[in-house]
Amino acid sequence: MNTLWTYGTCLTKYLKDNFTFWPEIVAKRIKYNVVNNGQGGCSNVFLRNSLIADLSKIKENDIVVFQFTYNLCQINYFDYNENMHTLKFHNTYELFKEGSTYYSNEDYELWEKFSDRFYSELILRDYYNLVEIFNYIEKHLKAKVRFFFFLRHHKVFNESILYRIIKDKRVVLFQDKSISPKFGKNETLTIDDRHPNQQGHVYMSKYILNAISIDTKYNLLI
Amino acid sequence: MKLFAYGCSWTYYLATKDFIKFWPELVAKELKINFINNGYNGFSNFESTNRLIKDLHLIQKNDIVVFQFTFPNRLKVNYLDDDKWYYNFKLENKNYKKEDYLLWLEFVNNFNLELLLKDFYNTKPLFEHIEKNIGAKVRYWFSSCSEILTYNKNSDILNDNFIIMENIDYSIDLIEYLEKNNMTLSDDFKNGVLKDENFKDDKHPNQNGHNFIAKYIIESLKT
């Protein structure tokens, strides 16, 4: 049996939620094993490194689905002993201060200002940081790759950058051809304004299954 | 058996006016093996890493990969599309304002250590994959650690977008980090041997500089 390899943040795996997340739903539907490498709160670089660590295990006809997060989410950094620490940049200075005493408020403000101004560019950079690996997996490992994003909906995404991503046929398109699932304030789909509930995961799975079915031997009609 | 080399202009400089044998050629000659020099002037660590990924299927057991990290604050990100390099965003691009450029500079100068480490940890899993799963040997080193980009207030920002100031260390933390992890080839780099005119020509190693670099790389490959 082939394997579905999934990577992502809290949208893909979140230990506190007792839902069946989209990787399990999708894998069951296509009768694949699933290895869910999601981890709540992690960065795109962290996810990319998890994917690289799995390269030797990914086999022909396996499927990889990669969920990007946004850059502002956090910085992972490493101390001299290579223990990873996380600075979380969400909404408050308090969270930042809890993360570390090493950085000042000015550091935080600069990071936030930079991440906000170059929001689209940084996401595109993360995408291009993965695209060669996606190509390698498809071309040399003969596995299929699909990806999508978890974006901040109140942010306006740069149109020219969005175009560069959408022209990659591997991207999962959700409602309104969005590269990120839109939950908004829809209480039937979310537990808050960002995270899907069980119905939200079913909703996401439909679009992911549809993207997987394109140009494959599977005929997964939603 | 083959040597794959990656890096910026310290690894391959297309526009050099003098005929120089760069360190990849010198190392390969000493080891009596073929080599592929994937260095390119102006490349960021991001670009070099992507070149390495493109070569993954070519690298075989017992091959050698040597990766040169450049300074992390290149003001651009390039991407590969149909084997041609395109700019993702360059801050001298007309789409960006002077304020954007200044914000970028302030950011990269403030977070130099973090950005370099991020570049390193972005590439390190590939090194581990190459050594563990392919069976090739990997070595890496850092150049230009004493250089830092800074804004030249007297220049026209669109025409003269940056200058490189020397003799400004990233930070003592970075030097300590590199030393603790044996990430430099030699203290000579830190002590500025390549700042010596005998080793350097217009911010780049001359032939003596490349001989010097090659010597340490060959030495490190013996371990």
Structure description:
The complex is a heterodimer of chains A (222) and B (223). Chain A is of the alpha/beta class. Helices cover 38% and strands 14% of the residues of chain A. In chain A, the strands form two sheets. Chain A has a four-stranded parallel beta sheet, with helices on both faces. Chain A has a two-stranded antiparallel ribbon with strand order 4-5. In chain A, helix 2 runs parallel beside helix 5 (119-140). Chain B has a four-stranded parallel beta sheet with strand order 2-1-3-6, sandwiched between helices. In chain B, strands 4-5 form a two-stranded antiparallel sheet. In chain B, helix 1 packs across helix 7 (207-221) and helix 2 (45-54) runs parallel beside helix 4. Chain B is globular and about 50 Å long. Chain B starts with a strand and ends with a helix. The chains are: A alpha/beta (222), B alpha/beta (223). The A-B interface holds A 45, 48-49, 52-53, 55-56, 75, 77-78, 80, 107, 110-111, 113-114, 117-118, 121, 124-125, 128-129, 131-133, 135-136, 139-140 and B 46, 49-50, 53-54, 56-57, 77, 79-80, 88-89, 100, 103-104, 106-107, 110-111, 114, 117-118, 121-122, 124-126, 128-129, 132-133, 176-177, 180-181.
